[in-house]
């Protein structure tokens, strides 16, 4: 029983050890394909007890590296790398690893035990694994993997043709040329499954099937040994060739259009090609693989042409003699891009799905005619314009110039010659240019100091015109909005008083055509409040005489409506008149004494605005005649000082009262109060004054009122001396009573 339990424990521990240690990986390294071989290298890490750890380089040899690479599915060369991948951040878990190379798991090799070591991270070991792949017929056929000493076919290759060719270091052809179905069990093969994200083919999941059925058959691929690089399109570039896992350039000695045509046909681009001095590498150190190539032009591949032996040449070391090729499309599809209308834009050639701009160097009106006629048979007029006003989705430039005479049916029929065209030299054309329709959006009225936008829109027409505003303030901000078939110029304006009635003009101009300039103008209407006071004219009024009060203003837009209102008094009529430059109101009234010191107010209002009302009050001043004149006297007694009294009430202006006796004005003095004016004449009567007539004359200077005359006949009395004192006292009392 004891030995049975011990056996089970040992078995479980040993089995756990084998299971958990059967994972290895290479980190902080690189993976790439070189000369037909996949290479994967990095710092070695082993997984055990849910932990990844590094391995020390003590006694670690190529045989141990072979076991690691076998665990990763690599069956080529295996190399132990010391001093390159040191200083890892995982703890060291294995040391003194010794393998004979036949183990299936690194944990089956000799070592000191998990976690036991006497190393530092300066001794972390790295491993390089290699795996060879190929196509069964050099550059085409089935994919095969090299295992031990033979190549084994690969089944279920779910990589695209492009990926397969790139993974094998060849040029893609983007197509599978055939599939050989498997209808029965075959000898061993490798079943492979890729996600498409792998950097090298060896990173795909692989299973070796010793005997079985390849369900999806064996896919055959075709890859190329030549390609064009450093070009502006897929139709041109520097010729690069592949040979025995190496890639290099071709020297241009003896290379011409025949040789270029063979390359273009081999690449499936076109029937004809042209040799070009463009597209050189210009880097130091040449890697010319072929030189002195001589073709008749009928060969299927330049490798079938006469040439020097491989790697033999007499060319310079700075790639100044690289072969450049421009393949001439057998058919060209034309298009325009970036225009506001379908008949304008950057002139382009479609090479497959690749847009390629036509060079502006040497592109004349005759070339544009042929281009536009090929796009539209009804084209009657063309213009060549600057390509800077249009946008292009590509910077590629077709490196040939056209030299049409204008009669060709297609632009490919025009003579062409190779050029070196910079990427910013794009030509733009307008087929059948047309004038746009122009509309203005100018709000009316505008309110002073309230920002507003004026919009000028040019719709249709080609090419797209320049558009701008000229308005009363030159410092207004303007911006342009361009959309399909339309361009707008928006003027941001803050209206001022001086801009009222100013004319704002939108200019639409085609700089590269003979079209006349279009001008659209609109006169601004700007509302602003009255800045000046109302001008009120109120004369001095005269009682019972018809009079007028006027109110006028010549400021503000719109001119205000003005009218009169009087508080507590009637008036005859009010009339208001608004002319083109002023507004006025007239108040008609026939005043009475009650109108004096009353207030009438002129009011102005700018209707259809939010401006505040304005007003100007005026106090009426009415002239009116005296109301009553009373004359009297104290007791007239001979020898006693007596007084004649003239009392006047009412009147504006205040009346002036004087006494006249015997036709002569007498000296008198006035006493004025709020209620009346008194004129007093003082004298000592004699008996001669008896029955004398004296008159109080009342006048209102500065008026047309008639003088008022009030007659007083004097009655003088003689008294005894004894009563004289009593009469003096009586006269004084009577005088104060009257005044």
Describe this structure in words.
Pfam families: SRCR. The chain has 739 residues and is mainly β. The chain folds into seven domains: 2-130, SRCR-like domain (Mac-2 Binding Protein); 150-222, no CATH class; 226-328, SRCR-like domain (Mac-2 Binding Protein); 333-431, Mac-2 Binding Protein (Roll), CATH 3.10.250; 437-527, Immunoglobulins (Immunoglobulin-like, Sandwich), CATH 2.60.40; 535-620, Immunoglobulins (Immunoglobulin-like), CATH 2.60.40; 625-738, Immunoglobulin-like (Sandwich), CATH 2.60.40.10. It is 10% helix and 41% strand. It contains six helices and 53 strands. Strands 1, 2, 3, 4, 5, 6, 7, 8, 9, 10, 11 and 12 form a twelve-stranded mixed sheet that branches.
């Amino acid at each position: 029983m004891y030995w049975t339990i011990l056996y089970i424990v040992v078995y479980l521990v040993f089995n756990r050890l084998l299971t958990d240690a059967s994972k290895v990986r290479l980190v902080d390294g690189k993976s790439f394909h070189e000369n037909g071989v996949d290479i994967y290298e990095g710092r070695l890490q082993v997984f055990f007890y849910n932990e990844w750890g590094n391995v020390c380089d003590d006694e670690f040899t190529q045989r141990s590296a072979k076991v690691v690479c076998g665990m990763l599915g690599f069956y080529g060369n295996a190399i132990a790398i010391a001093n390159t991948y040191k200083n890892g951040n995982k703890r060291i878990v294995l040391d003194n690893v010794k393998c004979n190379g036949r183990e299936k798991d690194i944990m089956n090799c000799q070592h000191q035990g998990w976690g036991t070591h006497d190393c530092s991270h300066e001794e972390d070991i790295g491993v390089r694994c290699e795996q060879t792949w190929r196509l069964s017929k050099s550059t085409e056929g089935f994919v095969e993997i090299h295992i031990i000493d033979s190549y084994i076919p690969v089944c279920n290759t779910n990589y695209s043709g492009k990926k397969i060719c790139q993974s094998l270091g060849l040029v893609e052809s983007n197509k599978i040329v055939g599939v050989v179905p498997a209808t029965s069990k075959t000898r061993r093969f490798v079943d492979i499954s890729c996600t498409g994200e792998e950097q090298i083919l060896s990173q795909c999941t692989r299973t070796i099937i010793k005997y079985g059925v390849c369900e999806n058959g064996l896919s055959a691929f075709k890859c190329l040994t030549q390609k064009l690089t450093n070009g502006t399109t897929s139709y041109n570039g520097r010729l690069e060739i592949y040979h025995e896992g190496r890639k290099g350039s071709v020297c241009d000695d003896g290379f011409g259009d025949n040789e270029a045509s063979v390359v273009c046909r081999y690449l499936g681009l076109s029937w004809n090609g042209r040799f070009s001095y463009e597209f050189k590498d210009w880097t130091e150190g040449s890697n010319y693989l072929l030189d002195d190539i001589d073709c008749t032009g009928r060969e299927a591949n330049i490798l079938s042409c006469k040439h020097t032996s491989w790697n033999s040449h007499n060319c310079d070391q700075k790639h100044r003699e690289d072969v450049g090729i421009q393949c001439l499309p057998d058919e060209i599809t034309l298009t325009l891009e970036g225009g506001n209308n379908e008949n304008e834009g950057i002139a382009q050639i479609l090479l497959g799905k690749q847009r390629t701009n036509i060079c502006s160097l040497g592109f004349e009106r005759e070339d544009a005619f042929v281009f536009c006629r090929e796009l539209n048979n009804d084209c009657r007029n063309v213009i060549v314009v600057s390509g800077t006003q249009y946008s292009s989705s590509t910077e590629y430039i077709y490196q040939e110039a056209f030299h049409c005479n204008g009669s060709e049916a297609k632009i490919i029929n025009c003579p062409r010659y190779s050029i070196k065209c910079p990427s910013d030299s794009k030509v733009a054309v307008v087929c059948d240019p047309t004038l746009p329709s122009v509309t203005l959006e100018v709000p009316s009225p505008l309110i002073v100091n309230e920002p507003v936008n004026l919009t000028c829109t040019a719709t249709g027409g080609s090419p797209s015109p320049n558009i701008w505003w000229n308005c009363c303030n030159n410092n207004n901000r303007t911006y342009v909005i361009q959309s399909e078939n339309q361009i707008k110029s928006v003027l941001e304006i803050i209206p001022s008083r001086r801009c009222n009635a100013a004319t704002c003009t939108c200019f639409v101009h085609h700089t590269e055509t003979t079209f006349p300039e279009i001008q659209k103008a609109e006169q601004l209407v700007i509302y602003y409040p009255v800045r000046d006071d109302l001008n009120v004219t109120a004369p001095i009024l005269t009682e019972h005489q018809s009079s007028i009060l006027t109110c006028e203003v010549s400021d503000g837009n719109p001119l205000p409506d003005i009218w009169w209102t009087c508080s507590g008094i009637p008036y005859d009529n009010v009339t208001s008149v608004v002319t083109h430059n002023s507004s006025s109101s007239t108040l008609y009234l026939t005043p009475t004494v009650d109108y004096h010191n009353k207030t009438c107010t002129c009011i102005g209002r700018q209707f259809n605005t939010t401006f505040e009302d304005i007003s100007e009050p005026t106090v009426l001043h009415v002239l009116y005649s005296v109301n009553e004149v009373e004359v009297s006297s104290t007791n007239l007694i001979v020898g006693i000082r007596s007084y004649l009294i003239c009392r006047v009430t009412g009147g504006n202006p205040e009346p002036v009262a004087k006494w006249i006796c015997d036709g002569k004005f007498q000296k008198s003095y006035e006493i004025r109060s709020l209620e009346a004016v008194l004129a007093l004449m003082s004298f000592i009567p004699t008996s001669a004054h008896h029955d004398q007539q004296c008159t109080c004359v009342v006048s209102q200077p500065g008026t047309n009122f008639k003088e008022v005359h009030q007659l007083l006949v004097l009655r003088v009395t003689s008294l005894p001396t004894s009563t004289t004192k009593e009469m003096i006292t009586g006269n004084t009392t009577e005088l104060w009573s009257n005044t």
